[in-house]
Amino acid sequence: MKSDILVVGELNVDIILNQIDGFPALGTEILADTMNVVLGSSSAIFASNSSTMGSKVAFAGKIGKDDFATKVMESLSQKAVDTSFVIIDDKVGTGATIVLNYGDNRCMVTYPGGMGCFSSSDVPDDALAKANHLHVSSPFLQPELRPGLLDLFKRAKGNGMTTSMDPQWDPAEKWDLEWEAIFEYLDVFLPNEKEILAITKAKDIEHAVAHFDALPQYLIIKQGNKGAAMLKEGQWHRHEGFENLQVIDAIGAGDSFDAGFIHAFVQGKSDMQCLRSGNLAGAINTTSEGGTGAFEDLASVKNSALSNFKETWN
Predict the structure, then answer these.
(1) What whole-number distance in Å separates Cα of residue 115 and Cα of residue 170?
(2) Please, are residues 39 and 86 in contact by the beta-carbon 8 Å criterion?
(3) Distance between CA 136 and CA 261 in Å, rounded?
(4) Burial of 43 from C-beta contacts in 10 A (0-12 / 13-18 / 19+)
(5) What share of the chain is helix, strand, coil (3-state, %, to 5)?
(6) Among 4, 48, 24, which residue's Cα sits nearest to residue 292?
(7) Which pTM value belongs to this model?
(8) Backbone angles phi, psi at 97, to 5 degrees
(9) Which residues face 12 on adjacent strands?
(10) CA distance 18 to 55
(11) Cα separation of 83 and 81, whole Å?
(12) pLDDT digits (tens, 9 = 90+) for 41-94
């Protein structure tokens, strides 16, 4: 039986520090009142939460052979994500991100580990043949994957798959991808507002869109608690966000938006239903710590939607 979604991307843990006494300066030490070690990485959060929502999900990536790797594999397996295409390499470490969390904002330091040496050639044809949709996240954290990204999307399309990508932030701020060549094989592009402006060096969204001669079928611009905008066939569509007055943290909220949107997309839901699903998933994410804390199971997702936002899930 085919998976609904094959996720290709980075795997790491998040070491989250909360209730921090100020911001650290060189040569000084500050304290955090709480720490939590959870499944991290945009791709893994997307995969885990998509599976919780009910999509059948498989993952292709690379980790080391260490305690962090055990945490990653156990976390994905607990959410019924197929990890048979995850490569375990004892010559590398498993990636980790230190998250300094300040309410709905944060700063991060990432050790890439295995995700820095995972390439498109590590994604077997068998993985593509066994899924209906390909989702890729964080190409700028995966230097070996980036050169083969265009070929990966071509291979996916050759297998009859639909495709999506979330670029995430480029730490080098070079944004050096073959954007329009990739867009030819990309159905859904999911940057946030800050990312699309950085990619195009534009002053606003209108100028950012005009920067490209061609775009994917769906350009989704995430705007945090303001919601999201979709450009399709030259027409803009908007869906307002769902306000959470008691944000625990916003780690993974954009990835959860992606999961909600693509979960609805692969089911053939309408454009506005996809936007609503994305916005609601992103809002639910902020009700608990970490990118997957609010997605323990489908019942908890439905309960959170109703109790926090007076909305029904799907």
Answers:
(1) 15
(2) no
(3) 14
(4) buried
(5) 35, 25, 35
(6) 48
(7) 0.93
(8) -120, 125
(9) 40, 95
(10) 31
(11) 6
(12) 999 999 999 999 999 999 999 999 999 999 999 999 999 999 999 999 999 999
